[in-house]
Amino acid sequence: MICFGLIFTNLRIFCEFPSRSADFLIIFAFVKEIAIIGAGAAGCFCAVELSRRVKDCRICIYEAAPRPMAKLALTGGGRCNITNSFEDAGDLKFIYPRGHRLMKRLLKAFGPEDACRWFEDAGIRLTVQEDHCVFPESQDAMQVVRTLERLMRAGGVRVECRRKVVQVHPDLSLTFADGSTASPDAVVMASGGNTAGILSPCELRTEKPVPSLFTLKIKDSGLNALMGNVIEGVILGIAGTKFRACGTLLLTDWGISGPAALRLSSYAARYLADNSYSGTLTINWAGVPENAAAEELKALAARGGAKKISGMHPAGLSERLWKMLLSRARLREDCRWAELGSKGLSRLASVLCSDQYPIGGRCHFKEEFVCCGGVSLDEVDSNSLECRKVRGLYLAGEVLDIDAVTGGFNLQAAWSTAHAVACSLASDIRQESPGDNIR
């Protein structure tokens, strides 16, 4: 893999300066060929970091798609949710349903503040939204893509698109779809979710990849008729399980969407896949326990008296949604609060906090990218992300069994894992190479 130009240069030096030939041949021997598989967020970020840390290192990214970072260009609705401030993140197991222990370690080395500083130093001004999501001020994902492309060019990184790697072997050799091969000194696998099969010759344990961020189909005419309604503080669940998610719910003509629905899909990704995306969705519209909702309804009844129950409803619910819930509780819209009675109030509180709908599948949209599954985290060193069985093979991004809820956390995982790999790989090269080989 050493280019002919370098070979010619070293041979010329050997002939013209024999007394110094040993020094140059040492440098020649330690020029490393690094192959990065996948020109996504993790692969490109790793390439930039590595090019900054190692001078005499030839880095080539192999990408199966026609262009690099196509997925990154679409994230956040084309705005690129670079990271999250983690200000209200709380326990990481609710942010990273799979991989939270590893992410806790990696975030200490390269967390959201580091990511923000990195991109701002690269010339991207950032803004933090009220929901703690971090976006470029330009609200343009292509600014992030172009910045990473510029930094890769500056670092001498070569990107070969339409070059699909189909197998990585234990000796680090690569086999491409066209039958050609390559033999780099180190390999960084950053090819995204559902690509762990490329590593099959290495016999690594993998977790089956399944979608982990998606909206749910709910076939209910009453609910579907409320498309466009946004309800804050809703608690979603799956009956018969412990899966629960809270947040903002968006009602659509096909079912449910919004942060609460996406969180639930992430937490219950494997369960839903194993059950063919069927089950019973529970909705707590009030976001409080049933006894607390009953007390609020009693207070409304005391104030309402002779007024119709359809004319007064708990805060946060639209009039249309409230009328649908009255119907589901088998209550007439013209019923007076004074006529409600304890049984009617109990039915209404039950519907308000334990409404149920059959799940009719998941929705398939181009913007839903994230998968759970991939190479088991037991297969990599938790500090370096180097494969335990195959030395010189590193893994970053979604090819690992790490995934997060929506809100910039998945891209932060890409930056953090890529940074860990770049640092570790540079350190390994430093141990093998002359001192002036490292920046």
Features:
6-stranded antiparallel barrel, 35% helix, 439 residues, alpha+beta, elongated
How is this structure best described in words?
The chain is an alpha+beta fold and 439 residues long. Helix content is 35%, strand content 21%. The chain has 14 helices and 19 strands. The chain has helices spanning 4-16, 21-29, 41-53, 75-78, 100-109, 112-121, 141-154, 221-224, 259-267, 269-274, 290-304, 319-328, 341-354, 409-432, and strands at residues 32-37, 57-63, 83-84, 126-128, 133-136, 158-161, 165-168, 174-176, 181-182, 186-189, 206-211, 216-218, 230-238, 244-251, 255-257, 278-284, 355-362, 371-375, 393-395. The strands form 5 sheets. The protein has a 6-stranded antiparallel barrel. Strands 6-2-1-10-19 form a 5-stranded parallel sheet, covered by helices on one side. Mean pLDDT is 90; it is low at 1-29.
What is the topology, as strand order, of the major beta sheet?
A: 12-15-14-13-16-17
What ranges have pLDDT less than 50 throughout 5 or more consecutive residues? 1-29
Which word captures the global form?
Answer: elongated
The total count of strands amounts to 19
What radius of gyration results from the CA coordinates? 27 Å
Give helix % range: 25-40%
Q: What is the count of DSSP helices, taking H or I runs of 4+ residues? A: 14
What gap, in angstroms, lies between the N and C termini? 23 Å
Q: How would you characterize the largest beta sheet? A: 6 strands, antiparallel, barrel
Query: Beta-sheet strand percentage?
Result: 15-25%
What is the mean predicted local confidence, pLDDT?
90
* Protein structure class: alpha+beta
